Amino acid sequence: MDAATSTTTLKLTPRRRRPDGGNSGGARIVNVTVRPDPRVLLSVEDAAERLDIGRTMIYELIASGQLATITIGRLRKVPVVEVNEFVERRRAAGSPARQAV
């Protein structure tokens, strides 16, 4: 295992009981290894997944110039740094306060 990889232990507990009223087995302990994503470029679909939005929305962001892409041959790629900068720009702009109902 290299220095960029980390392992952590998680305790998984069931959310609810089985419909028949029985116990679903209790908590389980699992070890999870996390590896950082070394990619510099993402597919449009991967960028949408990383932003937790749909394909249509990411294509709208690209068309409006809010998210820059590059083309390599016939492929359209989104630089990871651009995804991070997009999030930072949105954070800096802030979101309107929600009104109390």
Judged by helices, strands and strand pairing, the structural class is alpha+beta
Largest sheet features = 3 strands, antiparallel
Helix content: 25-40%
Uncertain regions spanning at least 5 consecutive residues: none
What topology, given as strand order, has the largest sheet?
3-5-4
Shape: elongated
Number of helical stretches of at least 4 residues: 3
Beta-strand portion reads 15-25%
What report would you give on this structure?
The longest helix has 14 residues, at 80-93. The protein contains 3 helices and 5 strands. 31% of the residues lie in helices and 25% in strands. It has a domain at 41-91. It has helices at residues 44-51, 55-63, 80-93; strands at residues 6-12, 28-34, 41-43, 70-72, 75-79. The chain is an alpha+beta fold and 101 residues long. Strands 3-5-4 form a 3-stranded antiparallel sheet. Helix 1 (44-51) crosses helix 2.
Task: Write a concise keyword list for the protein shown above.
3 helices; 31% helix; two-stranded antiparallel ribbon; elongated; 101 residues; alpha+beta; 5 strands; three-stranded antiparallel sheet; single chain
Compact summary:
The chain has 101 residues and is α+β, with helices and mostly antiparallel strands. Helix content is 31%, strand content 25%. The longest helix is centred in the C-terminal third of the chain and has 14 residues.
